[in-house]
Design the sequence.
């Protein structure tokens, strides 16, 4: 159903795409995930609102995770212009390999932060088990796991038709939507803002009730590959969003919300708490990132290592970037100490 801001939320499994009808066709925010039946579900929801695939002129994509951009190639086949941030452009070429392309650097970085070799092996094995369980449709193997989409989601590589810079406007008929660069969740992540309604299409940057995981990302165009300090960027992106007159959130997951300031503050509170914990641990003396991880999550199963390390290193990065801590490397091992 169309909302008061003239937005049609389209539910596709765990994701939302949003259709914005204008006087001259439709702008769609995020392409939608690509599972069996996703396209039909999309068509049906447009149809129920009196819209047609042929009305869609623009698909604007928040970031290169396949649950947000999986159907981009399909829109291109239908002759629709797919637009995205120029900062994210290269990432779309990875398709479903968006996480996998960097696993070798992830394992190397695990060693650098002090993860014992047997735990890295445990992580690789757990990951393989989860992958096989997922492929075979058995979601019970990896513990409790929510079925997020009706089926496996695919990721077909594509090249965006339009690569937009920060502040670029997508104008169609009587509506305009502004691309706001919001690096963090991914290096080239962006959100879309409609100044006339105060609606923000926040993708995974602000998700009501959830703390978006900043993840590990490596820029493999330089040698050695550079790790992107995602959490400081994420926090800066929150500030950029806060400076806009956002009155309503249309997130990529969970329910739309008008609690914009409260949501931003909730995320900040979580960041402050974690960074305060790290400072306390470091007060007792220098530690490796892995020691900090174990002090924070002592009973962490191997399969969650990557995700949890991404969170802890994110908060370490925040301390380092603010000049509250330093990170030194000796014999291939990182040590963090308070300044
Ligand atoms: Zn994402």
Sequence:
């Amino acid at each position: 159903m169309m909302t008061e801001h003239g937005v049609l939320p389209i539910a596709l499994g765990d994701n939302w795409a949003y259709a914005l009808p204008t006087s001259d066709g439709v702008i769609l925010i995020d392409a939608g995930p690509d599972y069996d039946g996703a396209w039909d579900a999309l068509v049906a929801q447009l149809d129920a609102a009196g819209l047609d695939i042929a009305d869609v002129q623009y698909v604007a994509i928040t970031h290169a995770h396949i649950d947000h951009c999986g159907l981009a190639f399909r829109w291109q086949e239908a002759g629709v212009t797919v637009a995205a941030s120029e900062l994210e452009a290269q990432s779309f070429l990875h398709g479903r390999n968006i996480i996998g392309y960097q696993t070798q650097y992830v394992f190397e970085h695990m060693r650098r932060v002090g993860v014992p070799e047997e735990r890295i092996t445990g992580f690789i094995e757990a990951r393989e088990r989860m992958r096989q369980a997922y492929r075979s449709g058995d979601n019970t193997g990896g513990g409790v796991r929510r079925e997020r989409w009706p089926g496996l989601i695919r990721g077909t590589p594509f090249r965006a038709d339009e690569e937009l810079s920060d502040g670029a406007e997508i104008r169609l008929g009587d509506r305009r939507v502004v691309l706001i660069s919001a690096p963090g969740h991914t290096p080239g992540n962006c959100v879309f803002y409609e100044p006339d309604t105060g609606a923000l299409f926040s993708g995974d940057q602000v998700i009501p009730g959830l703390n978006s995981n900043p993840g590990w990302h490596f820029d493999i165009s330089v040698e050695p590959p550079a790790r992107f300090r995602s959490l400081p960027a994420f926090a800066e992106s929150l500030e950029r969003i806060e400076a806009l007159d956002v009155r309503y959130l249309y997130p990529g997951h969970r329910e739309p919300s008008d609690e914009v300031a409260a949501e931003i503050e909730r995320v900040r509170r979580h960041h402050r708490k974690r960074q305060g914990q790290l400072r306390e641990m470091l007060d007792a003396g220098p530690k490796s990132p892995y020691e900090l991880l174990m002090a924070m999550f002592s009973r962490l199963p191997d399969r969650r290592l990557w995700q949890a390390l991404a969170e802890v290193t994110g908060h370490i990065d925040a301390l380092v970037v603010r000049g509250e801590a330093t990170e030194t490397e000796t014999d291939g091992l990182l040590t963090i100490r308070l300044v």
User: Anything to note?
Assistant: The longest helix spans residues 260-283.
